[in-house]
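User: I'm preparing a small set of examples for a lab meeting where we compare how different chains pack in three dimensions. I only have the primary sequence for this one, and I'd like the structure in token form so I can line it up with the others. Please keep the answer compact; I'll paste it straight into my notes.
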Amino acid sequence: MIRLRDVSKTFETAGGTRVILDRVCMDVHAGQRVGILGRNGSGKSTLIKIIGGTSRPTSGSVETSFRVSWPLAFGGAFQGSLTGLDNLRFICRIYRTNFVEAADRVAEFSDLGAYLREPVKTYSSGMRARFAFAVSLAVDFDCFLIDEVVAVGDSRFHERCRRELFEKRSSRAMILVTHDESTLREYCRSAAVLTHGRLSTFGDIQESLDRYRAACS
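Assistant: Understood. Below is the structure token output for the 217-residue chain.
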């Protein structure tokens, strides 16, 4: 389970303090798929990063009782001077995952070939995203965080991502940030709308879409 209680995030700007998240509360249970809707700049990506542990809230708490992925295709935690395989070895130690098995899966899924033995800093942005996505799928996470990056790579890789994530891991919990109505309807069972830093949750997809459209009008 993931439990957010009164999570707030602020940034200091030249114009003063900017509130991105304002006392956000949310629970995500095992196997639950939650969509998060919000306008650009509403704080969706910030919220995902806080849940994944790549950013800290200004106040409030985040509790997790199962393994949560980093935002899919997020490569900010990779050490650029290390090779892809060396980065994977380090991640496998943290998550107690068999390195040999994970390396085989990453090599097959990413199609990076010999580049896995090159420093990550030499990767293009597309290669880095594919590597990060492949590494995310190589670890046995209980919940996946998806920040509108499922479509990395060409159409063939996009379809592989969709099949691996939404079909083969259909029993896992997911938190999906998206602007696409069809994606929300197909992959999520409930949704939340983020407006002015506040998160409103809805069990009904249509109700959440209606609220989102009203916020954007």
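A couple of notes for your slides: The first strand starts at residue 2 and ends at 13. The chain has seven helices and nine strands.

User: Perfect, thanks.
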